[in-house]
Amino acid sequence: MVGMVDYALNYQANGFSVIPIDKRSKRAITKFKDSTFTADDIKRFWHEEPEANIALRTVDFFVIDIDINKTENGYQSLNDWELSQYIPDTLRVTTPSGGEHIYLKKPQGVEISQDIRIKAGIDIKANKNNYILVPPSNNSKGQYKWKNKHPIAECPPEILEILKTEKKKSKVNFTTDYQKDEYSSKTAKLFEQVVYGLGDKGGRNNALASFIGGLLLRGVEVDAIYMLAKLANHYTPESLPQSELDRTFESMLRKDMDGS
Length: 260
What we know:
By secondary structure, the chain is an alpha+beta fold.
């Protein structure tokens, strides 16, 4: 009988950087930063956690991550985005939540930036220490499945150019006056929100979701994220009710676990 370890070893033998993932938390069960594990490492990991899911570090490839949920339809966003016309025939995976992962090779010597929510329902997973779940990984909603068996295609130059342009656009202002004419990196913005709050009343929920998502992406421990979210909410001029903060936190955590 083929077990998860056999799939993991097959990925490793084909040159991918494999990471064991805890099913419940969707977190790596070992430290993996800048690490490529051997076959012996993989056998040991899955001996200790036979049902662990499998993820691959996005070292030599990146993923256009399409999500669909009650409020956002990543497929619609992709259809409306000029980038879609340049996507070649390439490897694709369907996710348990109804989304899709579109795989593309990173051109040699070209940096591709991670970009969460580059469009509504679309993330770019590209950092070499980020990872993406692969078949036959599964969760309570179902299983990750190959949509096709195409090889991973080279990223067309048109897509690279569009991603660069979108990255520049994504440098957004806070809605509060203190940040009115200044730009900051996404990581800097996360730090600033802890002490300056989540912005104006109209955008607090989206800002909180983005804040939590940004910390989850960067591998911050879940308990620490919750405490930081409470701090950011505390320093928001008109704070969200605790119940609303909890709902948003749980929703983002489920999305991170189910997902994408």
